[in-house]
């Protein structure tokens, strides 16, 4: 392995939650979390209590390291690129704003996922000037992930942020199981109802923790749910997540339906995947997504929009928008469960325009006849996909629903052990989120200012030299012209 120069770094230390279930997150990979053990067919109460007791005393301090210097090199044996102490092995995936690569920590010998994001991306047609830049978005994601410590939320290990580099590197724990596979090539479900229940429970616990901390994910979907080697599910991708200190305070007070506030106006902007949008996001006046020309043409057709009347279980898109709250995550959770069970989304359309304005806010929920399900599961899906956010089921109620706890030996103990209030309430202030991306901006401004000063100084000297040279050339030309005149005049005289 090539030698790596010493790096300047900062370490951010977090307080530990007191929940026993979290301790499994720091134990060896052969152990399961408390919730996973309870879902196992070979569940052993005595063994579980002994392990939980041991783990509660073994949880180390969580640190996220921020490295301000980045070195590139190549491993002499494999030829793979090295970023500081990490060897890049292969690409795991890519998206609009960046890509994720499998890496290896050459000091610890463990695999990691490295998210590589460009600071600046091309502005898309139709984007607004007040939209967050790509760098601001990634720094907002970093600020949120630094504060998240939960067995069902992916953990950020290190941020490599060199001001002289075009890219920012986020080192995240590697999830060996990858994305959850929920359908085959024929759009048929690939998991059993029991498997869907277990995965659903893990997501509920992670999402409940995020809401308790004042974080709304805004992009819950199967692609953002990753599996460990032990088939434990963790929520990932916080690129469009929203943090509100006020929302965190509301959670502490136990208010599930807070009044709208100016602080949360960012939630009105649509973000995430359209098929998972909640009905309260589908209002024409607040549409901020880019709509293609074909979508607009289809949307303007008479067949795109129905008559003004709608069913009792829908919200008129022309009415007053309900407040945008954490209930949008609950809706997306319901769409995700529907996907697990039926292998398809509950609401689909030919165009995004039609989906946004017609199908999601107006079309009633239907269950396919070819895949029979229990009445209990139908009830849960109907309550998760309730179009009125004020009537939508809460996560606390989800944890008590008969279908969710059907195979748990002790549901009350499970609820007590996984109560998010056992975790210390963490604080991500607006200043922290803002400063996460303004520090580098200030450095860039200083560098640009220095460069501009040097440029002006050089330009000034150049102008002075140009003026001197120009003056010299003018004198030279004048002298040359006068000499020519004298020569012309003296020639005839010489002839005489």
Automatic annotation (TrEMBL):
Group of enzyme by EC: transferase
A GO CC term attached to the entry: cytoplasm
UniProt-listed SUPFAM superfamilies: Protein kinase-like (PK-like)
Bias type Low complexity, positions: 12-28
GO molecular function, one term: ATP binding
Keywords per UniProt: ATP-binding, Kinase, Nucleotide-binding, Serine/threonine-protein kinase, Transferase
Reaction equation(s) it catalyzes: L-threonyl-[protein] + ATP = O-phospho-L-threonyl-[protein] + ADP + H(+); L-seryl-[protein] + ATP = O-phospho-L-seryl-[protein] + ADP + H(+)
Superkingdom as given in the UniProt entry: Eukaryota
InterPro entries xref list: Kinase-like_dom_sf, Prot_kinase_dom, Protein_kinase_ATP_BS, Ser/Thr_kinase_AS
EC number, as in UniProt: 2.7.11.1
Region called Disordered, residue ranges: 1-60, 469-496
A GO biological-process term: intracellular signal transduction
Positions contributing to ATP binding: 115
Domain Protein kinase: from-to ranges: 86-404
Sequence ranges of Polar residues compositional bias: 31-43
PANTHER family associated with the record: MAP/MICROTUBULE AFFINITY-REGULATING KINASE, SERINE THREONINE PROTEIN KINASE
Membership in a protein family: Belongs to the protein kinase superfamily.
Name of the protein: non-specific serine/threonine protein kinase
Organism annotation: Gigaspora rosea
């Amino acid at each position: 392995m090539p030698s790596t120069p010493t790096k300047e770094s900062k370490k951010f230390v977090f307080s530990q939650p007191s929940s026993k279930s979290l301790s499994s997150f720091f134990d060896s990979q052969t152990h399961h979390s408390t919730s996973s053990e309870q879902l196992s067919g070979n569940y052993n109460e005595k063994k579980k209590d002994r392990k939980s007791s041991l783990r509660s005393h073994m949880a180390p301090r969580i640190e996220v390291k921020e490295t301000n210097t980045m070195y590139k090199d190549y491993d002499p044996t494999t030829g793979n690129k090295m970023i500081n102490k990490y060897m890049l092995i292969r690409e795991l995936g890519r998206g609009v704003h960046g890509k994720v690569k499998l890496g290896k920590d050459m000091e610890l010998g463990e695999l990691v996922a490295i998210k590589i994001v460009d600071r600046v991306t091309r502005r898309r047609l139709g984007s607004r000037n007040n939209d967050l830049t790509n760098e601001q978005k990634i720094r907002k994601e970093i600020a949120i992930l630094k504060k998240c410590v939960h067995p069902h939320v992916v953990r950020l290990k290190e941020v490599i942020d060199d001001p002289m580099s075009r890219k920012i590197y986020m080192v995240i724990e590697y999830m060996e199981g990858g994305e959850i596979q929920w359908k085959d090539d024929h759009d048929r479900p690939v998991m059993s109802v029991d498997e869907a229940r277990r995965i659903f429970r893990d997501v509920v616990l992670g999402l409940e923790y995020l809401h308790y901390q004042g974080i709304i994910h805004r992009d819950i979907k199967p692609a953002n749910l990753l599996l460990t080697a032990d088939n434990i599910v963790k929520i990932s991708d916080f690129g469009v997540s929203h943090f509100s200190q006020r929302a965190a305070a509301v959670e502490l007070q136990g208010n599930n339906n807070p009044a709208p506030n100016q602080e949360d106006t960012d939630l009105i902007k649509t973000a995430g995947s359209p098929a998972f949008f909640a009905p309260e996001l589908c209002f024409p006046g607040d549409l901020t997504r880019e709509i293609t020309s074909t979508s607009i043409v289809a949307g303007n057709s008479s067949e795109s929009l129905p008559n003004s009347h709608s069913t009792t279980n829908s919200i008129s898109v022309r009415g007053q928008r309900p407040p945008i709250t954490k209930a949008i995550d609950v809706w997306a959770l319901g769409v995700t469960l529907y996907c697990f069970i039926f292998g398809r989304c509950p609401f689909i359309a030919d165009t995004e325009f039609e989906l946004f304005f017609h199908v999601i806010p107006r079309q009633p929920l239907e269950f396919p006849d070819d895949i029979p399900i229990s009445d209990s599961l139908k009830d849960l899906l109907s309550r998760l996909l309730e179009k009125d956010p004020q009537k939508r089921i809460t996560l606390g109620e989800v944890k008590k629903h008969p279908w969710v706890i059907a195979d748990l030996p002790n549901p009350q103990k499970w609820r007590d052990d996984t109560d998010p209030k056992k975790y210390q309430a963490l604080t991500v202030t607006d200043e922290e989120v803002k400063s996460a991306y303004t520090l580098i901006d200030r450095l860039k401004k200083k560098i640009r200012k220095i460069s501009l000063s040097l440029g002006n100084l050089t330009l000034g000297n150049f102008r002075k030299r140009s003026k001197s040279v120009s003056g010299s050339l003018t004198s030279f030309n004048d002298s040359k012209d006068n000499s020519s005149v004298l020569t012309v005049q003296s020639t005839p005289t010489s002839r005489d």
